[in-house]
Amino acid sequence: MQVMGNLFRKQYTKVLDKALINLNAVQVNAVDHLTPALDQEISTLQARLAIEKTRLEEMLTKEKVVNALITDLGSVPV
């Protein structure tokens, strides 16, 4: 039983060694050419987000004004 366990471990070790060799062979730098386009897209989205944030802040300010008017109208005697 122990002999089979040792054989299994040796085979498993060989498989893991081959997997690590294959992993080391993978080249990640093959996608470096995508970085400038992604950076540009991020910049574009950040600018768009800033615009939307400004619009949201304007809407929140208007909402406060409207709510204050509603409160004032609610306190006017009929």
Written description of the protein model:
The chain is mainly α and 78 residues long. The protein has a domain at 2-27 and 48-73. It has helices spanning 2-25, 35-74. The longest helix is centred in the C-terminal third of the chain and has 40 residues, at 35-74. The mean pLDDT is 87.
Outline of the structure:
The protein is mainly α. The protein is 82% helix and 0% strand.
Could you name the key traits of this structure?
mainly alpha
Secondary-structure blueprint of this entry?
Elements: H1 2-25, H2 35-74
Structural Rg: 32 Å
Mean pLDDT: 87
Succession of helices and strands: HH
Relative helix content: over 70%
Main sheet overview: none
**Assembly level:** single chain
Unreliable segments of 5+ consecutive residues: none
Strand content: under 5%
- Give me the count of strands: 0
Distance between the termini: 95 Å
Which structural class is indicated by helix and strand composition?
mainly alpha
